[in-house]
Amino acid sequence: MLQGVIHQIMSGIATGGIYASVALALVMIYQATHHVNFAQGEMATFSTYIALTCINLGFPYWVAFAIAVVISFFIGLAIERILMRPLANAPVLASVGVFVGLLLIINSLSGWFFDYTIKQFPSPFPDRPMLGGYLSGHELGSTAVTLIVLILVYLFFRHTRLGLAMRAAAFNPTSARLVGVRVGWMLALGWGLAAAIGAVAGCMVAPVVFLDPNMMSGILLYAFAGALLGGIDNPLGAVLGGFAVGVIENLGGAYLVGTELKLTLALVIIVAVLTVRPTGLMGRKVYSRV
Amino acid sequence: MSNLLEAKGVHAAYGETKVLHGIDFAVRQGGVTALLGANGAGKTTTLRAICGLVRARGDISLDGRRIDGMATEDIVRLGVAHVPEGRGTFMELTVEENLKLGAYTRPAREATADFGHMFAYFPRLKERFKQQAGTLSGGEQQMLAIARALLLRPRLLLLDEPSFGLAPLIVQEIFRILKRIREDAGVSILLVEQNAALALEFAEDAYLLETGRIVMSGPAAEISKDEGIRRSYLGY
Lengths: 290, 236
Description:
The complex is a heterodimer.
Chain A: H1 2-33, H2 40-56, H3 61-84, H4 92-114, E1 129-130, E2 135-136, H5 137-159, H6 161-171, H7 173-178, H8 183-209, H9 217-230, H10 235-255, H11 262-276
Antiparallel strand pairs in A: 1-2
Chain B: E1 3-14, E2 17-28, E3 32-37, H1 43-50, E4 56-62, E5 65-66, H2 72-77, E6 80-83, H3 95-102, H4 108-121, H5 123-127, H6 138-150, E7 156-160, H7 168-185, E8 188-193, H8 196-202, E9 205-210, E10 213-219, H9 220-225, H10 227-234
Helix pairs in contact in B: 3-6
């Protein structure tokens, strides 16, 4: 029994890492624009297809992975510059409409370019149990990759000028412009980074769930639950929330509701957080004077 | 003395609401100009028009170079630092990060050397260096805002109500420091103030704004002596 629980927790952490990455991507765009990018999952799926295409072209795994991440970065950048830029001052519903449209367009493009059949995606990690049988090689490897990405993102935002400028642009755009930060480009950069992080998450999850155009739709829901749980405006909170949702999902699926109702747990978390504590566990309260 | 900043026929509006109706003004090289007027006269809008935060019509030039229509980020790079209304503190960031952002357009090494000068003016900021800026008092935030602006090494400093919401003693301290900064750095200043007596004492030139029009201008000393103006416009 206890072993089973530990096993569920460990693999919950492994999937939680994927949710944490996607949650971080969501937060990155949310912080700067106060919009949730519903297309984040589809963008990640598309990136995974890019990686698969490169692998099929004969590139070694990590080269293909790097190519997918870099191309995704520029796709994210381009989406912000071309599609989101003109909407900077548009009402919320217009942006939501564009996000949903983007979701459908990218989903269809994935199907059109790479067809709708379910594809296998290789894992770069050895296929054998590790850590005393608690985790598969892929689970352990993908958790490590996730952690490395999270640490790199943290270091970038904490210790580089550009990272500081991006945070400034998100917190206080007017003041940021007044010290010379090019706020528009910081937003685009945020989109690029979010897309790149999504690409990593896509490549790490694809060997487990297999690749098809709808691969990320469920994952986006879990990631969103994670982001809300931790606080949608707090990157660290969202990451921890993502891991927590992974563990909750696994434990709940194994002992509480069964695997068929696992996705419902994500929805329950979303509704519960929004009604009980809308700022999430680590989010900041926003007071506005009237 | 030549003019560093010159504005002619500046109009500005927020949507349908016109705020400035063609105003002319100038800031002399190395001088301090005060912009006075009641609430809603358009003082803040004038500053925002200079640094491109609000769309404006008319000629605005810095050292003979037209800056109207330029992006804020580019105007800033020409050496215009704006201490905005409400101080514009990055509340979530530390004092250190706020200061680093002030020097964002300059090479990092040069900027950290300048931190020392700022601590000489504002020792309080050194004590609070690692603290989150949102936890600072109003006066400290004003000092931080001025230091952040100075780290740009500006030629023109736009100050929007540095006395706002502060205790009289703190206001005095801040203006004392501003005088020192002016002597040391040779920066030209355009000062917007509700507190006319304070502003006229600090400035050499003054303009009086009323509902988006300039109704009076001249040497600060003369304006402060004119009892009629004082009674009808400045209220002291």
